[in-house]
Amino acid sequence: MTTTAPAKVTAPAVRVRGLNKTFTTGSLLARKRLHVLQDIDLTIDAGEIVALVGESGSGKSTLARCLARLEQPESGAVEVFGEDVLRTQRRGASRRYRSDVQMIFQDPFGSLNPTHRVESVLERSLRLHGGTGQSASGLRSRLVELVRTVDLDPAVLSAFPHELSGGQRQRIAIARVLAVEPKIILADEPTSMLDVSVRIGILNLLAKLRDERGIAILYVTHDLASARYLADRTIVMNAGRMVEGGPSLELLDDPRHPYTRLLVSAVPDPERSEPFDAGARAELRKEVEAWTSSPQQVTTAVSTAGDVGAADGPTDSEHWVLMPQENR
Ligand SMILES: Nc1ncnc2c1ncn2[C@@H]1O[C@H](COP(=O)(O)OP(=O)(O)OP(=O)(O)O)[C@@H](O)[C@H]1O
């Protein structure tokens, strides 16, 4: 008799279940509790990019910061490759966790020490990760390899951050993260401070890291068009809750939830057959308000997982047309 070996089950890179986070603000006499994350569920597989979109203040960064262990949620579970880290690492993230889960921020200048040349910024990360056992030539070739991975010329190694463009600085910030060989990258608006012309290069770099290294990426953004371009799945957040999620193309081309439809309506698309008019948007806004006061989890056919320009108009709206995912 032949027996079939059971299929190997691989845990997702990240699984978040029932996560809640509140902040207390105000003076002693007028304390206010802000429930910033409410019952958040999310999974990200290895080699997958998941975009988190929503209006300003919807809780996207707080969720990323909870995953980076920079914030402590009140309840819920965060599993990384199957390990329930809030239980097993109660006193804070282990050294291993801090290598495996890395964060990229929106301001690449703020995250690089202006007095250090690029090579010493990267060398520091390499040494932290691999100890001090590298020979001088081994170290040099790792530095060159790192900057080449982020598509920069090794000449940048001798530059100071202020001598680089915003896009180059963000690439160095990414190289520094790669020095510790992360399995998960939390990218919080990594292109929002960059010129439109260089944004797509950073998005393509993130896609390369997913495809070639199998890195799981949470991509936090206001820009629906870039989420559509880059992310395998997109999740929409409103006021601390997840309202809708699914494969990016399906979700953003055929949004079901009124809030997602409102966000999508703010991105002009000449190919859209029925343009949204002000009346339609006002109706959607009413539906969103009704949902916010009595939220129900919306499950769409594609279901698995703030200010995206809904009120202020789109940013980079041309990407919607210029960056179709299928032509990437
Ligand atoms: N440390 C903190 N203390 C108090 N309130 C906070 C703190 N951090 C965030 N908040 C509040 O939590 C809410 C969610 O903020 P968060 O930054 O997660 O939203 P976001 O969706 O990432 O918005 P943005 O796109 O503007 O960064 C906001 O109302 C914010 O003011």
From TrEMBL:
Q: What Pfam families does the entry give?
A: ABC_tran, oligo_HPY
What keywords would UniProt list here? ATP-binding, Nucleotide-binding, Transport
Q: Could you tell me one molecular function GO term of this UniProt entry? A: ATP binding
Annotated region (Disordered) at: 306-328
* Top-level taxon of the source organism: Bacteria
Q: What CDD domains does the record tag this protein with?
A: ABC_NikE_OppD_transporters
Keyword Transmembrane helix among UniProt keywords? no
Q: Which InterPro entries match?
A: AAA+_ATPase, ABC_transp_ATP-bind, ABC_transporter-like_ATP-bd, ABC_transporter-like_CS, Oligopep_ABC_C, P-loop_NTPase
Where is the chain membrane-spanning? none
**Boundaries of every ABC transporter domain copy:** 14-264
Q: Which SMART domains match?
A: AAA
Q: Which PANTHER family match?
A: ABC TRANSPORTER, ATP-BINDING PROTEIN, TRANSPORT ATP-BINDING PROTEIN
Q: Per its record, how is this protein called by name?
A: ATP-binding cassette domain-containing protein
Report the source organism.
Answer: Zhihengliuella alba
